[in-house]
């Protein structure tokens, strides 16, 4: 890779000699960072724009040089499998001795955010997640890539009907060497991943861990989509102890309307012993296909929220949250669209950091590090969706839901400047299809 440099941030002013534009950071002289989308796992991900083509992209940068090896590994993994149900790799390079990756900028929201808001998915939508993810992971395994970190926050649900589920973050992927595949599969024994989604052999850092760790993780994701909970939760030692001593409660016992064939596929993926799971991800995909087709009852993953007694999904928005958590006299109805950005909610005596999942002229859905009580007055700081300009606005929390530590809150704006309202309105109109 050609070594270039990161142009530094500057105060809002005319362009500096370093090449910073309007106070924004520029990578490799081409990628202008607009807003921070995510931070964690040793890296930051920014929404950015190519200075010459004007294409919107996502740029990933490691926090420190010690994390660079994971980024190089992710570049190699994505070069093998990019496309289809995997986030598309557009470019990569080095800046100030650190690698960076450029991806397509997806429009939508994470499956984790979706579950935080809904609790669980409609059965047909859970089947869609399983079919698309198993097909993608089967292709990854065929290319010699084991993801090892399949979980809802690394699964993105998009606005594209033909490509609703996209797999992200290959930073801890294991690559199988063409020269010595067995060695490549077993070389690393350090503990990597999120405990709730890790197979027992991964939790034990076993050298026998192979592609079936992804089969187990997919089973956990589908279990959560159907039931609203993971089979076992807690820290590494807690999860390992629970897996060793008990079997997970069957899907059919928690959600009785789940088709028996679908429930059996999920539970087989979750077998404690790798030999008792499906032997390949292709076998998982075939078993899911045999469970049925996505018929007329299946809706787009981003179309509805919650699951009522009828089994149909009923939308829940800031305006349509349960009546018990809002003042009917002050109900607001606005079109909401997916939007991802980090945000900070300032409260009396502190703040809560998190991310936006959806936005409208009336407010946004916020997923934070802790719950925000209903009817709490606060201010919210975030980047506007088009310009990336930071604003701080007064708001009130209207509803909240906590699912497995993910705290979703509906925040209603109390005041908006004309400029901020116009920018949000244009973005909503564009994303909802009102403007083409």
Your description of this structure?
By secondary structure, the chain is of the alpha+beta class. It has 3 domains: 3-104, Phosphorylase Kinase, domain 1 (2-Layer Sandwich), CATH 3.30.200; 108-289, Transferase(Phosphotransferase), domain 1, CATH 1.10.510; 323-432, Thrombin, subunit H, CATH 2.40.10. It is 27% helix and 26% strand. It has 11 helices and 19 strands. The strands form 4 sheets. The chain has an 8-stranded mixed β-sheet, with helices on one face. A 6-stranded antiparallel beta barrel has the order 14-15-16-19-18-17. β15 (350-359) and β16 (363-368) form a beta hairpin. α3 (123-142) runs antiparallel to α10 and α6 crosses α9.
Whole-angstrom Rg:
22 Å
**CATH homolog superfamily of the largest domain:** Transferase(Phosphotransferase) domain 1
Indicate the percent of residues in helices.
Answer: 25-40%
- The chain-level structural class is alpha+beta
Strand order of the largest sheet: 1-7-8-6-5-4-3-2
Return the CATH architecture of the largest domain. Orthogonal Bundle
Q: What is the number of helices?
A: 11
Q: Strand share of the residues? A: 25-35%
Q: How can the largest sheet be summarized?
A: 8 strands, mixed
Give the beta-strand count.
19
Secondary-structure element order, N to C: EEEEEEHEEEHHEEEEHHHHHHHEEEEEEH
Give a short overview.
By secondary structure, the protein is an alpha+beta fold.
Present the secondary structure layout.
Blueprint (H helix, E strand, L loop, with lengths): L2 E2 L1 E2 L18 E2 L3 E10 L2 E8 L5 E7 L5 H14 L7 E7 L2 E7 L3 E3 H8 L4 H20 L2 E2 L8 E4 L6 E3 L6 E2 L5 H6 L13 H4 L8 H16 L8 H10 L5 H4 L5 H10 L11 H9 L47 E11 L2 E10 L3 E6 L8 E7 L6 E14 L2 E8 L4 H15 L4
Parallel strand pairs: 1-7
Antiparallel strand pairs: 2-3, 3-4, 4-5, 5-6, 6-8, 7-8, 9-11, 10-13, 11-12, 14-15, 14-17, 15-16, 16-19, 17-18, 18-19
Helix pairs in contact: 3-6, 3-10, 6-9
């Amino acid at each position: 890779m050609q070594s270039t440099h990161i142009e530094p941030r500057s105060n809002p002013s005319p362009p500096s000699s370093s090449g910073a534009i309007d106070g924004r950071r520029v990578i490799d002289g081409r990628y202008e960072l607009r807003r921070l989308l995510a931070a964690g796992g040793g890296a930051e991900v920014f929404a950015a724009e190519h200075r010459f083509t004007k294409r919107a992209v996502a740029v990933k940068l490691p926090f420190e040089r010690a994390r660079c090896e994971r980024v190089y590994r992710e570049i190699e993994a994505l070069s093998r499998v990019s496309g289809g149900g995997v986030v598309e790799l557009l470019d990569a390079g080095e800046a100030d001795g650190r690698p960076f990756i450029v991806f397509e900028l997806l429009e939508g929201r994470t499956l984790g955010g979706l579950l935080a808001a809904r609790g669980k998915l409609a059965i047909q939508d859970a089947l869609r997640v399983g079919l698309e993810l198993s097909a993608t992971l089967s292709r990854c395994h065929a290319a010699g890539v084991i993801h090892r970190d399949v979980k809802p926050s690394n699964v993105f649900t998009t606005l594209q009907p033909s490509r609703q589920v996209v797999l992200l973050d290959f930073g801890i992927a294991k690559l199988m060497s063409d020269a010595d595949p067995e060695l490549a599969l077993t070389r690393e024994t350090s503990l990597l991943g999120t405990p709730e989604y890790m197979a027992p052999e991964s939790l034990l850092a076993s050298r026998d861990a192979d592609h079936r760790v992804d089969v187990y993780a997919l089973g956990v994701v589908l279990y959560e989509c159907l039931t609203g909970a993971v089979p076992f939760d807690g820290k590494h030692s807690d999860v390992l102890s629970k897996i060793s001593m008990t079997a997970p409660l069957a899907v059919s016992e928690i959600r009785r309307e789940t088709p028996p064939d679908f429930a059996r596929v999920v539970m087989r993926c979750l077998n404690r012993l790798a030999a008792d799971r499906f032997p390949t991800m292709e076998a998982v995909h075939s078993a899911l296909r045999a469970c049925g087709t996505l018929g007329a009852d299946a809706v787009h993953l981003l179309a509805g929220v919650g699951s009522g007694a009828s089994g149909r999904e009923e939308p829940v928005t800031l305006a349509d949250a349960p009546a018990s958590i809002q003042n009917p006299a002050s109900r607001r109805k606005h079109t909401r669209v997916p939007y991802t950005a980090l945000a900070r909610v300032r409260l009396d005596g502190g703040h809560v950091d998190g991310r936006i999942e959806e936005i409208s002229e009336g407010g946004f859905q916020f997923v934070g590090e802790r719950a925000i009580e209903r009817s709490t007055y606060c201010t919210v700081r975030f980047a506007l969706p088009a310009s990336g300009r930071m604003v701080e606005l007064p708001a009130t929390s209207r509803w909240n839901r906590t699912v497995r530590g993910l705290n979703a809150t509906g925040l209603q704006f109390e005041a908006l400047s004309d400029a901020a309202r116009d920018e949000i309105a244009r973005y909503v109109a564009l994303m909802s299809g009102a403007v083409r």
